[in-house]
Amino acid sequence: MKSLLQKKIFITILILFSILVNQYYGNRGVFPIDSFLHFDAAFNITSGNHPFKDYWLITGPFVDYIQSFFFLIFGINWTSYVLHASIINMVLVLFSYYFFLSIGLKNYYAFIYSLGVAILAYPSIGTPFVDHHSVIFSMMACFSISLAILKKKNLFWILTPIFLTFSFFSKQIPSPYFILLFAAVISIYFYLFNDENKNVLLNLFFGSIFSFLLVASIFFINQIPIENFLTQYIFYPFSLGESRIDRLNIDFNNLVGQFKFIYIILIPLIVSTFFLNKIKKKNLINKRDFIVSLLFLGSVGILVYFQLLTKNQVLIFFIIPISAAYSHAYVIKYFNKKYLIYFILAIFIFTTVKYHVRFNQNRKFIELVNADFNLTEDAVKLDKRLKGLKWITPHYSNQPLSEISLLIDIKNILSEENEGKIIITDYQFFSSILNNKFASPNKWYDNLSIPNKKNKYYNVHKNFFLSKIKKNKIKRLFFIGKNKSEMYFFEEFFNENECIISHQFNELLLEFDISKCKF
Predict the structure, then answer these.
(1) 3-state SS of the chain: helix, strand, coil percent to 5?
(2) With 50 as the cut, is the pLDDT of residue 154 above it?
(3) 362 and 404 together in one domain
(4) Looking at the structure, do residues 13 and 151 belong to the same domain, yes or no?
(5) Does residue 403 share a domain with residue 323?
(6) Is 108 in a helix, a strand, or coil?
(7) Are residues 241 and 146 in the same domain?
(8) Average of pLDDT values for 279-298?
(9) Which tens digit of pLDDT belongs to each residue from 376-415?
């Protein structure tokens, strides 16, 4: 009875903490290209514009669709935007707590490791982001298949392909690598427990069918062409992925130095898994524990590779508390040495504080590590929908009010422009606050999202882009942002470049009038 009450108290604390910690840091500054990535995209969906069909998209649509749901329920505002990330953070934390209990940890230890997950998972960026979604859902798939093996419950076999589907439609990787890992481990599982094979395959099939029907229904209801999806989400990104792998730089610092605490805290788990029987000279490790350990160690390897491949700020440090929980559980089962537990707890506490300060408090992930947060301004000055956001960006870290003033000026200029227009910017909230129904033909305009002339999908993109301009009778293109005004790639799309009339309103806003162009 006491234990049940303690669990309820811990769960309540974890729910509140995992949401509130992310809400707090999600409001602490922004990096426009990342922080606003899904704001206008979700607004586009609520306005009837869908990915692949109405705008070119090479990153996962799942985050956009989930955010559109949050907008429909809670309104189009910054609070509901950050809440999306906070809820995903909460789901991961609660699943982690349940999993930690399932592998043998006591309530108290499962609770403190789950707090570590809450601190290091989503608050590093605070707003919905494809990389965080894809990694978190892949990790939950690892939890799910592990629980299926440990508890022999059909539900977890069913959930595994669902989590992998969510991960894949958040971002193309790392879910394919997890599928390969799971296939290998399931083969070992079938060999060791062949009497359970029939139920396993059946439940994996049910989960896969549910995932397929869910995705197919979204495509069917919104009339999204499969050909567009394959080109934009599979074939074109794959052509980019090949070059990324070729340029992958794996040196000691990249592979070992930045992930050293993950490796160190895994030492007890590795020893338990691979060397225990030799040390004790007995077959001590449980077969199911062995398989679950292989799953997790393989997952860590995939996430490290994923991190190196993406070349973004590190987002996988939340696996440190998860690794600590694994090692702790296996030490209790197979060594029961208190000094090892103290070692694990010391590394866990040190790294949680270290990366919390670096990524959450100092906002390293969103490039604000040198910013003075005493200079932040209330974003409600820009628009009431941004209420709650403490505005400061890397672009104007010393003058956030000047940036807001420029954006207010842009907002007023665009609000007076009634002709067909599209907005090209990293500040992807202007369509929402201006209620602009025309989705930009691209979700974003970096040099990866747009095929260059050497890429075989260049003409496919060009035709897609021009068809949306023509269909929506677009007369003006507005570029917002210092870097965006340098993007002249689309000029070659038109027959007569002289037809383009440009007008620089302020240092952030450039207008291109294409009303006289033929295309």
Answers:
(1) 65, 5, 30
(2) yes
(3) no
(4) yes
(5) no
(6) helix
(7) yes
(8) 80
(9) 999 999 999 999 999 999 999 999 999 999 999 999 999 9
